[in-house]
Amino acid sequence: MSLLPRTPSHIPFVSRGMVLVLIGLGLALTACSPTLSRFERTLATNDSATAALQQWCATRGIAAPAVVQAESDRSEREAASPAIRTALGVGPEEPLAYRHVRLRCGDAVLSDAKNWYVPARLTPAMNTTLETTRTPFGTVVRPLGFHRERLESRRGRAAECPAGTVLSHKAVLRLSDGRGISFVTECYTRANLAKGTS
Known about the structure:
Layout: H1 10-31, H2 34-44, H3 49-60, E1 68-72, H4 82-88, E2 97-105, E3 108-117, H5 124-132, H6 137-140, E4 147-155, E5 165-174, E6 180-189, H7 191-194
Antiparallel strand pairs: 1-2, 2-3, 3-6, 4-5, 5-6
Helix pairs in contact: 2-3
């Protein structure tokens, strides 16, 4: 007669444990991924996240043509915190616009981003384009010659990012005179790593 326990309840416990181990191993491997390191370098060399993603999409062969578009819910609203207003250099009464987008290249969503921007510091044509099209913010405001002030960069998911985030950024986009035009939180997805040719 076997002395080994035959209790069926042991099986789910082992399965859950194995799932947790595999998830932890997957996250550790992602954090050490050379592809993630290359992706970080691509982002770091561009002031525009849109330009970086378009370059990355083309290099990795994620989609052809490598065109990034912004999908957004125009009815969504989120008030800017005092910290965001301070970073942009605007008072509590200054109007800010809000855009929550998913930047997509082909079928792949590469970034989930929230953007609070100062309409008064853009041209009327730029504001109209942002309100009525799927053109990404970085593409629309490129003629302003903005630069990126990186506030935070971390591997993995920040608190405000959805599950599946491999890289989290916060930044302010500034004009040459230092005025902020946009505060962004950017959550880059696993799709940046899961497919490609390099």
